[in-house]
Amino acid sequence: MPANCCQMEDNTFGEAEAKANLKDYHRRGPANQTKLMLEAIRSLNLKDAELLDIGGGIGVIHHELLKDVALQATHVDASSAYLKVATEEARRQGHSERVKFIHADFTDVAADLPQVDVVTLDRVVCCYPDFRSLLKAAATKSRRAVALTYPREIWYLRIGGKVINFFQSLSRDPFRMFLHPVLEMDALLRKEGFERVGLRRLFVWEMALYRRVS
Ligand SMILES: C[S@@+](CC[C@H](N)C(=O)[O-])C[C@H]1O[C@@H](n2cnc3c(N)ncnc32)[C@H](O)[C@@H]1O
Questions:
Q1: Whose CA is nearest to atom 9 of ligand 1?
Q2: Alpha-carbon distance 115 to 79, whole Å?
Q3: How remote is the CA of residue 9 from the centroid of ligand 1, in Å?
Q4: Which of 1, 52, 60, 77 to mutate to test the pocket of ligand 1 (most atoms within 8 A of CB)?
Q5: Could you read off the pLDDT of 81-98 as tens digits, one per residue?
Q6: Is any atom of ligand 1 closer than 6 Å to the C-beta of 123?
Q7: Probe target for ligand 1 pocket from 124, 134, 205, with the most ligand atoms within 8 Å of CB
Q8: Phi, psi (5° rounding) for residue 104?
Q9: Can you tell me the distance from the alpha carbon of 129 to that of 127, in angstroms, rounded to the nearest whole number?
Q10: What is the largest CA-CA distance in the chain?
């Protein structure tokens, strides 16, 4: 995918959405599925870790992990509006010098990025059609762990996804939501040398934590 990934994400994840997300974060803290991911990463007991947050949105994962787990972070995002808000929030929280922001489709820039300890994808695979390229590239960048959240493979989300995508096509918006096969994502990460060490479920989202074993 898609040569126009950034343009599409800029349309879908624009300024209004980014500001609304920031307001929610200030009011209520991280979203529930993000809390599960933060808890899972903290359970690894890492210190001074290097973090790569793919599709980090307004940057909640690194805003939080830079407090205790991470020494530095790279945030790659296809939405310039999200990156702008994430950059301002990093400055406000006093850790902007420890975060590198990159506006790109991650699969286009992965080869140029160094390996880090932890790679995160919070609600990202469901925005991207080619989950194999995305997850493979993400896995190769991780020395120790990959954490991701994605919509559960369950009947009510299959229906919900179809309804959302139907209205997206009616409005001629190219953005689609993807319910990728969990077993295939799991098999891919195992093939890349990881084992699953955590799995938590909410009504919509599932969070999986993988640790490198080879
Ligand atoms: C639903 S938002 C989630 C944002 C944030 N992680 C959260 O949970 O609030 C999806 C994010 O993934 C980004 N994204 C999707 N595909 C991407 C890709 N291939 N490379 C970089 N960013 C991507 C979008 O720009 C957007 O910021």
A1: 57
A2: 23
A3: 8
A4: 77
A5: 999 999 999 999 999 999
A6: yes
A7: 124
A8: -170, 160
A9: 7
A10: 48
Ligand 1 pocket, residue 10 CB under 6 Å: no
Which pLDDT tens digit goes with each residue over 96-130?
Answer: 999 999 999 999 999 999 999 999 999 999 999 99
Measured between alpha carbons, how far is 18 from 15 in angstroms, rounded to an integer?
5
**How many CA within 13 A on the CB side of residue 90?**
25
Ligand 1 atom nearest 106 alpha carbon: 20
Q: Which residues pair with 177 in a beta bridge?
A: none
Q: Ligand 1, closest atom to CA 6?
A: 25
Burial letters for 181-197: b for 16+ Cβ neighbours within 10 Å, e otherwise?
eeeebbebbeebebeee
Q: Phi and psi of 200, rounded to 5°?
A: -130, 150
Confidence grade of residue 161 (pLDDT, cut at 50, 70, 90): very high
Would you tell me how many other CB atoms lie within 10 Å of the CB of residue 161?
A: 16
Ligand 1 near 54 CB (within 6 A): yes
Query: What's the pLDDT score for residue 9?
Result: 76
